[in-house]
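From the shared-data thread, chain only:
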Amino acid sequence: MYVALVQVLDNVVSTGLAPLAWFILLNGLDDLVIDVALLWERGHRPQNEPNAATSRPEQRVAILVPLWKEANVIGPMIRHNVAAIRYSRYDFFIGSYPNDEPTLEAIRELEQRFANIHLAVCPHDGPTSKADCLNWTFQRMTLFEEQHGVRFDIVVTHDAEDLIHPDALARINAHCSDYGMVQVPVLPLPTPVRDFIHGIYCDEFAEYQTRDIPGRQILGSFLPSNGVGTGFSREALERLAEISANRIFEPECLTEDYENGLRLHRLGFRQKFLPLSGGREAMATREYFPRTRRGAIRQRTRWITGICLQSWERNGWRAGPRDLYWFWRDRKGLLTNPVSILANLFFAWGLLHGSLGELHPALAAAVLAMTLYRIGVRMVCVARFYGWPFAALTPLRMVFANYVNAVATLSALLRYLRARLRGEPLVWLKTDHAYPSRQALLAHKRPLAEILTGSGYVRAQDIALAAASCTNDSELGDYLIRAGFLSEDEYCEALSLQQGLPSGHVAPRDVERRAVRAMPRTVLREFHVLPFRLSEGTLMVATPRTPDESVTAALTRFTRLRLVFHLTTSSNFAELERSFGNK
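Structure, as tokens:
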């Protein structure tokens, strides 16, 4: 029976190899169109994109962040980005739902600390859709404008896990007067090679944001929003509101970002993708993507449902030649994703059982050359942002990506058909978010000297005088305090802004003795820390110093609680030590 089964499979593979080979070859030729367009652009119209933002005056920017069950993520996100962003005229409007009290409480705490953070509560329980939450958040922004007599010129969308590049708002501001939509590139944060699932996202985004997105613009088609790091001019959003009963983001769409890019293009608004430059230090929105097989399939199911199926249903194939070509490229995954994994299986079987020899030599050589070319292009793109050691495993990740995409495609088709047969709306498949560790955030921190001068704490000439004799931020702070240029409270506040950590005076009466007893006294004295509050699985830890990864690693050996460091002045910490350090 086994021999018969092998014979049947041999026959199936032998019959299917040639059609699959032609399919791979034709699909590869389709991809070559993009490469030819990029080469033509480089040779005939060299880009003169400046590395820094132009000197245009800062317009007022509103950043919309839709949330559902993000209580553990939104605090670190806001504290980090407020510390990192090199732009002064911006406000966050954070949307949440009445039935998500932990997230509401986290946003309220941020409102109390930062004057430019504003809570937007949807009028109904959640979750609905990201687009619905964004619409109500936008309405909260317009109410703020009426109440305060201001107007936001630019609206930027972000998610709860995003690391906003320090210069992103300035770059968006530089172009939004000329474009209705400006897209900042998006790149996954680097992770170890063993993080195989996340590596798939690194591979794909490195290639798509280097090739496909610029290719769309060169060929004159629409630019889909990435959903994060997208800046909209106020004129563009008001036009969307006008034609769609104030629904700027389409609530029924699972990929409202893709839909908005198409809608703005059809309304005649110019769109711009800020090109990736700078290698590993490229200006891009960074974030973690799903790191499990299930999470990746879930997210890609939503993407395929929205981009391939919903867009097909809503927009059909009604478009000019340029947009029609990109409709095909965006939707062909419905076919290519399942066929790709099938091709992998067929060619693996053919290689093991000698069936590949039945292919015509010219066809086999063409397919091999095309495959190696496509792998090589992706590896070059990946190496540019993640290095060659990481790029070396790209071929293996491509095979596994074929499997993930094939399963997601079948899942999307089943969900879509079931919803249509039952007359039910498609449900928002929300992605679980995680925020990077403090070590991963260091590259985005503004220098302490920049924060001190920008906040008006210290004059630039005094900073320059102090910097001549100081080698790090700690020495700089001590020097300025001793010289009378800076108070302890001002230094603590500036350090808090730089590090994205909460700060403030901790009174001895507010210290919980059970929190102090959570760690050995020797550890507390060694690392200059003092736990002072326990709340819902979180241990608040006071310290006058910026905690590094070694401190965090040492403390986590003694507790399973989530650690949140709270900066205090040296005088305040000394007071706490006198009261509790020996107890």
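The two ends are 77 Å apart (CA to CA).
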